[in-house]
Amino acid sequence: MYKLLKTEGRAKKGEFHTPHGIIQTPVFMNVATVAAIKGALSTKDLKDVKCQVALSNTYHLHLRPGDKVIKRLGGLHKFMVWDRPILTDSGGFQVFSLTSLRKIKEEGVYFSSHIDGRKIFMGPEESMQIQSNIGSTIAMAFDECPPYPAERSYMEESVARTTRWLKRCKAELDRLNQLEDTVNPNQMLFGINQGGTYEDIRIEHAKVISEMDLDGYAVGGLAVGETHAEMYRILEEVVPYLPQNKPTYLMGVGTPENILESVERGIDFFDCVLPARNGRHGHVYTNRGKINLFNAKYELDERPIEEGCGCPTCTTYSRAYIRHLLKAKEMLGMRLCVLHNLYFFNTMMEEIRDALDHGNYAVYKKQKLEGFKQKEEE
Length: 378
Known about the structure:
alpha/beta; TIM Barrel; 14 helices
């Protein structure tokens, strides 16, 4: 159940009640693709950096260790020792990124494993079965993520198929939730809006899937090559046609700037690999933009990554030390940067919720964006 608490324009603050706890929105989901955050973070670390939701990947977990293995071990929450919500994406994006290895049919997709080349089939029912075995809090519907750019005729066919697949996903998850041995009998389902940069296709699709009364709705197929301006335009056109009394999720987005702009356009849920990926390469986020700790100017810098930051990294270590670890290729360097970046993102989401609570989100957003444009003093 989603409870809308505050609005400012289209921006909204809410509470999403799930079988594994309440999610305060807007929220950034920390990406644990194979049931772990890259950068050697434990689930205890995730709590320390204020993570509310972990996002894991259906396709990858199906291949390794296998969703049936996870089910035998009691489900993903027990397996990775995480008692807060988990969202699993459907595997659709990964399958469709294997362009040379897959074949799309009405029943689903035939493809080859990127690990060992074995032939695999995944359709709506299979995706729901895998996610049911995993026992995630929120399952994502199996959809096609069309390429960018795509011809209008292809996009229309693709979106129509995604709608048919969504109906099959809903029916199958309803069936699975009734089974006696199901890991999570209250597993929730989010549908996905597609349509590329064709706003009329997007709007029509939003209207159709909104009638299905799902637990939440995602906007997919963005951040795949279009400009930021195009992405914001699509959000402005489409979000008003998705139910305001349900959470909206912008898949695979994004930078702090993307998040601030998208919250203003009515988005509740975000996920992105950037904080962890950039952290592993020594790129860390601050309120005055991103800095690269490999730069020589930090060799003798005894300050934390960001003054006043309460993360486990900044309260203990200096830029100089972290730079040394990164240069020496010590795993601890990557770990400390990822800890800081996830704390930065999750803290920004807290600030966003607080600003919405006080009715001054527009002011907060302006100040935050201006801060990002500033560069540190040399």
